[in-house]
Design goal:
Order of helices and strands: HHHHHHHHHHH
GO biological process, one term: transmembrane transport
Number of domains: 2
Subcellular location: Cell membrane
Oligomer: single chain
Shape: elongated
Radius of gyration: 24 Å
InterPro entries: AI-2E-like (IPR002549)
Number of helices: 11
Strand content: under 5%
Family: Belongs to the autoinducer-2 exporter (AI-2E) (TC 2.A.86) family.
Protein name: Putative permease PerM
């Protein structure tokens, strides 16, 4: 992610690698500090407000659900509706208690986080500045006959680099656009929901579906089924459509070339094997398998050391 502005931009205009790495690191740390001390505290506070308002939302949902058996007696049973509402209320209250307990427990990890905030930027600086020296040191201890591994590495390095850079840009663009759209309608918890929408792009297809549930729930609670709700929901759908049909093709034109069915199967399979982290790394793992499959049948693999 940081190699691209270092090598392609700053070094291309004449900066030494040391100065280029320093400038990129300063910008990177500045963005992290902005996220840590401006964006995340506001989103966290909005999350607390959301948990506080959740009982009211559930009561409103229960009142609405209670009217369904009278409106549609042939389709709805009052006992089932009451049981579902009570079950949902219990789950939400337990979730709120869990969040509070986690918040208190997370205070213990603040010291560790402070140490990481110092060590990680230093590690990033030296990784960017001395990248070639480190790669040369690794090459010296690897076997010389590593043609297949070298071919797979070259393909993986290019595709994963493009994928990570594209995903970060997609997260920022989608998150900011969603936040501005929600601000336009004065939607509550707009920053929190925009952050969730931004992170949802990390999980293809499934993430967008899951994050739509809280967006619709908050908008329904605030606006009801009026014009504002449908207008806000339409703006949200337009952003999602532009992301899938315009932004993704532009950002990932040189990135991983995987069929949508392969992506969905990768998410399902790796998610079933390793849970959240399997879903998170589904596309990189699928890209690795694709690179190995493409390189394996080639009988004229060139030596990576040449």
């Amino acid at each position: 992610l940081l190699e691209w502005p270092t090598a392609r931009l700053l070094q291309a205009i004449g900066c030494s690698r040391r100065w280029a790495a320093s400038i990129v690191l300063i910008l990177f740390v500045g963005i992290l500090l902005l996220m840590a001390f401006v964006v995340m505290p506001i989103a966290w506070q909005q999350g607390i407000y959301l948990i506080r308002d959740m009982p009211g939302m559930l009561n409103k949902l229960s009142d609405f659900a209670a009217t369904l058996p009278r409106r549609y007696p042939a389709l709805m049973d009052a006992g089932i509706i009451d049981a579902m509402a009570e079950n949902m209320r219990t789950r939400m209250l337990n979730m709120g208690d869990s969040v509070v307990k986690y918040s208190l427990a997370s205070l213990v990890g603040l010291l560790t986080l402070a140490v990481y905030l110092v060590l990680v930027p230093l590690m990033v600086f030296f990784l960017v500045k001395d990248k070639e020296q480190m790669l040369n040191a690794v090459r010296r201890v690897l076997p010389r006959n590593r043609g297949l591994a070298g071919q797979v590495w070259n393909e993986m390095n290019q595709q994963i680099t493009n994928y990570i850079r594209g995903k970060v840009l997609e997260m920022v663009v989608v998150g900011v656009a969603t936040w501005l759209g929600f601000l336009l309608f004065g939607l509550n918890y707009s920053l929190l929901l925009a952050v969730l929408v931004g992170f949802s792009v990390l999980i293809p297809y499934i993430g967008a579906f899951v994050v739509t549930i809280p967006v619709v729930g908050v908008a329904l609670f605030q606006f009801g089924l009026g014009t504002e709700f449908w207008s806000c929901f339409a703006v949200y759908l337009i952003i999602q459509a532009l992301d899938g049909n315009l932004l993704v093709p532009v950002l990932f034109s040189e990135a991983v070339n995987l069929h949508p069915l392969v992506i969905i199967l990768s998410v399902v399979i790796f998610g079933g094997l390793w849970g959240f982290w399997g879903v998170f790394f589904a596309i990189p793992l699928a890209t690795l398998i694709k690179a190995v499959v493409h390189a394996w049948p080639d009988g004229q693999v060139t030596d990576a050391s040449s």
